Amino acid sequence: MSDLESLALKLISSGPHKVEATPRRVRALFGGVWLFDTISARHVWEHQYYPQFWVPISSFAPSVLTKSKAIDSNGSAFLGVVKGNTKTTDRVLIFEKGPLEGLVRVEFKAIDEWLEEDQPIYGHPKNPYTRIDILPSSRKIEVKIGGVTVAESSSPKVLLETGLRPRYYLPKISVKWEYLSPSNTTSICPYKGQASYYNVTIDGKEYADYVWWYRYPTAESSDIQGLVAFYNEKVDTYVDGVLEKK
């Protein structure tokens, strides 16, 4: 059984965590074709953390969406396929009965580009209940790894994101760069953009991807552009001389 079939059966039996209409205009570009352009999408929380977009069947462009396989004997849900000009994907669920009746889930990562209004979104849809504040601070931040101070600043930016611990973004001039080396790792955050990473090496021991930064953050997180952050759950972080709990 595929992961999509397992997800569909879970949603059929237990329902989603939450479903809400969104007033956003939502579009998806795939293989040179706009699959849909709708103001009737739903935010569906398949788990408690963040939503996915589910889109009405009626919003899809003609001939781009087809059913491929029934998932249950009641005809509640089907695997599907969407087709662009240059490619197809089968990472599709179509619901015809139940709490998600008439809605389609196209896997976020399978799509070339998602837009809310005219703004590209990355990683996954934004949670409308998540807020980010980036506050300048004069608290002294000292970061130690393996007992060695690798960064120290009295002018951090404190990033506060709903439900998560504070992150301290430090000027690059506050970092001891002799301990850092570039990593090939990248990650995507819908609220902040694409992050690049650094490894830290202390006394021959490498701490992979302990540091990240955003060269081109999203507009809402532009205040952290060019600053670096450490995983404070992995390093020793002192705030005004007091060791923060990991």
Give a description of the structure.
The structure is a single chain. With 246 residues, this protein is mainly beta. It folds into two domains: 3-121, Domain of unknown function (DUF427) (Metal Binding Protein, Guanine Nucleotide Exchange Factor, Chain A, Beta Complex); 132-243, Metal Binding Protein, Guanine Nucleotide Exchange Factor, Chain A, CATH 2.170.150. It is 5% helix and 48% strand. The protein has one helix at 3-14; strands spanning 18-21, 26-30, 33-38, 42-45, 52-56, 65-70, 77-83, 88-95, 103-106, 113-116, 119-121, 132-136, 141-145, 148-153, 157-161, 167-170, 180-189, 193-202, 205-213, 228-230, 236-239, 242-243. A seven-stranded antiparallel beta sheet has the order 1-4-5-9-8-7-6. Strands 12-15-16-20-19-18-17 form a seven-stranded antiparallel beta sheet, with no helix packed on it. The protein has a four-stranded antiparallel beta sheet with strand order 3-2-10-11, with no helix packed on it. It is elongated. The two termini are 39 Å apart. The mean pLDDT is 97.
